[in-house]
Write a structure and sequence with these properties.
353 residues, Elongation Factor Tu (Ef-tu), domain 3, Helix Hairpins, 4 helices, 21 strands, elongated, efflux transmembrane transporter activity, MexH family multidrug efflux RND transporter periplasmic adaptor subunit
Length: 353
C-alpha cells in the first residue's frame, strides 16, 4: 500500500514538471513568434551617411579616332582597267592618277567628234557668207550656228571621257584599301580605292546633356590614348552637334594633329575641364542610386526613428555616380540607397548595412 502511494506521488510530480516545462516552452515560443512578427513588418534597406567630399569635376568621354578626310574613289565611266599605279599604303596627292581605263574606243569617238566639228565650222562659214548676200534665211543661219555649238559641245564631252579614263585621287592621303586589279571591267560608281587622310584625326565622343553646355568650339581638350599610355595628346573641339541622340547624348568631334603614331580606329579618352580649371570641388553629395524614380525627381528616403521618411532635395550637377546636393540635406543624415521600391513614407525599416 505504501509503495503504491509513493508511485502515485512520483507520477504526480513528473506530470507537474512536464506541465511546467510545456508552459515555459509555450511562453518562449510566443515571444519568438512576436519578435519574428516585428521583423517581418520591417523592410530591409541599405543606407549611406551623407557627407561632404572632394569631387573631380572634370568630365571624361570615350571615343575612337576617325580620319579627318576619307574618300572611296570610284570610276566615272565604264571600261576595262589597263593599269593600276598605286598599292595599299601608298601616299597620294589630290589629282594624282591612280589607275587608267582602256580608251581606244573613246579616242575613236574623239576623232569622230572633231571631224564633225570641222564640218560644222565649214558649213556655218558658208551660211554666214550666204546670209550676207541673201542666199539663205535667218532661220537657216540660226540652225547652222546651233549645229556648230552642238559639235563643239560633243568635242568637249569626249574630252571629259578621255580625262575620266584616268582615275584620279580626290583627296591627299594614304591608300587604305585597293579593290581593283588590271583587267577588271568597271562601271560608273564602282569603288576602286579607299583613301584616308590621317595627317590630322578627329576623336568622336558622346557628351551627356548635363555637360554639353559647359564646353565650346575651339576649347582645348587633353586626350589619353589607351594603347599609348606614356604619351599625352591634345586637340580642339571642332564640332558640337545641335541635336542629341535617343540617349540624350550629343556627338562631339575633337581635331588632333597626328605626330605619326596615331591611327584611325584607336580608342581614346577626352577630359573636358568644366570648373574653370579646378580639378576638384568640395561638395555635399549622395549616390545617384538613392533617388526615387531617378535623379530628376529630387526625391529620396532618409532614416527617421526606425522608419523611412520621404524628402525632396534640390540637386546640382551629376558627377559619375554622385549627385551634388544644393539644399534639403545638411550632412550626417542616413540616406537609403536600396529597397526604395518597397518603401512608403513612414515604412518601418531594418538597416542591413
Amino acid at each position: 500500500m505504501k509503495k503504491t502511494l509513493i508511485y502515485i506521488i512520483v507520477a504526480a510530480v513528473l506530470v507537474g514538471l512536464a506541465a511546467y516545462k510545456i508552459a515555459g516552452n509555450k511562453e518562449k515560443q510566443t515571444k519568438e513568434v512576436q519578435e519574428v512578427a516585428k521583423q517581418v513588418d520591417k523592410i530591409n534597406v541599405n543606407v549611406v551617411t551623407v557627407s561632404r567630399e572632394n569631387i573631380d569635376t572634370d568630365y571624361s568621354a570615350n571615343g575612337t579616332f576617325i580620319p579627318k578626310q576619307e574618300s572611296n574613289q570610284s570610276s566615272e565611266i565604264s571600261g576595262r582597267i589597263v593599269s593600276v599605279l598605286v598599292k595599299e599604303g601608298s601616299r597620294v596627292g589630290a589629282g594624282q592618277v591612280l589607275a587608267t581605263i582602256k580608251k581606244d574606243a573613246i579616242e575613236v569617238d574623239v576623232t569622230q567628234a572633231q571631224n564633225n566639228l570641222q564640218n560644222a565650222i565649214s558649213d556655218n562659214q558658208r551660211y554666214e557668207n550666204a546670209f550676207k548676200t541673201g542666199g539663205v534665211t535667218k532661220q537657216q543661219l540660226d540652225n547652222s550656228r546651233l549645229q556648230l555649238r552642238n559639235a563643239q559641245a560633243a568635242v568637249r564631252a569626249q574630252g571629259v571621257r578621255v580625262n575620266d579614263a584616268s582615275i584620279r585621287a580626290g583627296i591627299s592621303g594614304t591608300i587604305n584599301k585597293k579593290m581593283v586589279e588590271p583587267g577588271m571591267v568597271v562601271a560608273p560608281g564602282t569603288a576602286l580605292f579607299e583613301i584616308v587622310n590621317i595627317n590630322s584625326l578627329k576623336l568622336s565622343v558622346l557628351v551627356d546633356e548635363s555637360q554639353i553646355g559647359k564646353i565650346q568650339l575651339g576649347q582645348e581638350v587633353p586626350i589619353k590614348v589607351n594603347v599609348l599610355p606614356d604619351e599625352s595628346f591634345s586637340g580642339r573641339i571642332t564640332f558640337i552637334a545641335p541635336k542629341s541622340d535617343a540617349s540624350l547624348n550629343f556627338p562631339v568631334e575633337i581635331e588632333v594633329q597626328n605626330r605619326g603614331n596615331l591611327k584611325a580606329g584607336m580608342y581614346a579618352t577626352a577630359t573636358f575641364k568644366t570648373n574653370n580649371g579646378a580639378e576638384t570641388q568640395n561638395m555635399l553629395t549622395v549616390p545617384a542610386e538613392a533617388f526615387v524614380n531617378g535623379v530628376s525627381s529630387g526625391q529620396l528616403f532618409i532614416v527617421s526613428n526606425g522608419t523611412a521618411k520621404l524628402i525632396t532635395v534640390q540637386t546640382g550637377k551629376v558627377y559619375g555616380d554622385k549627385v551634388q546636393i544644393i539644399s534639403g540635406l545638411k550632412g550626417g543624415e542616413q540616406v537609403i540607397t536600396s529597397g526604395q521600391i518597397n518603401l512608403d513614407n513612414g515604412s518601418k525599416i531594418n538597416i542591413v548595412k
